């Protein structure tokens, strides 16, 4: 049964895709600027070979949807797939409208802000518009880089390629837009890698701990506890995840055989590697 919260989430993702697609077609592209990730690659290919930008975006993202299904589960793929399809369709729709801004500096600033709002809302609801985030999750499982750092490195190569297509000045303006977008995403969704400490009080620790390790690659620390009133024995699980992964954790808790009491807190600093994921070869 579809919950009210899920419906609200889809509405927010719809609005986020609308804002992102409108910003790209009406502000950034008319000023010969690109977005990062798969969207940026799609714009470059569309500029070089013509055709449908929305189709490029959709086709290039399909492999990452498949990978995302294996890693993050059905809800992530549904929300992400819905957002990507809607985003691709809206790109074609907005492509028929006149540009909103023809000033490069204004396009850089306000385009970055608007793009950050649109993408940030979608990330906040557990989806994404770009396959590079899935790449970031995959690569971060096997090295010391965070998801945001992996995405940033990939985007450096993409913006570097844009120099040969749009010129150095437009590539640098695009890079500046990306920095603005990323900071706004940080505000809207607490960022890709904003750490969250999670305490889970449960009667079924093994199911939750196994799925957190399997689907998120995170270690879990278990404590023995007892209800003060009920006197019943409880297990308290502690782990640290990113904001991007909270929606997946919520799915794990919803699918658990018994209900749990959960608190999520912001983490200002992490010392050590608890936030990092175990390599897939250790997940046995």
From TrEMBL:
Gene Ontology cellular-component terms listed: plasma membrane
Top-level taxon: Bacteria
UniProt xrefs under InterPro entries: DUF2179, N-reg_PII/ATP_PRibTrfase_C, UPF0750_membrane, YitT
Keyword terms, alphabetized: Cell membrane, Membrane, Transmembrane, Transmembrane helix
Membrane topology of the entry: Multi-pass membrane protein
Primary residence: membrane
Signal peptide coordinates: none
Transmembrane intervals: 6-29, 41-64, 76-97, 104-123, 143-166
Location of this chain's protein in the cell: Cell membrane
DUF2179 domain segment(s): 218-272
CDD domains: YitT_C
PANTHER family: UPF0750 MEMBRANE PROTEIN YITT-RELATED, UPF0750 MEMBRANE PROTEIN YQFU
Name of the protein described by the UniProt record: YitT family protein
Organism: Candidatus Coprosoma intestinipullorum
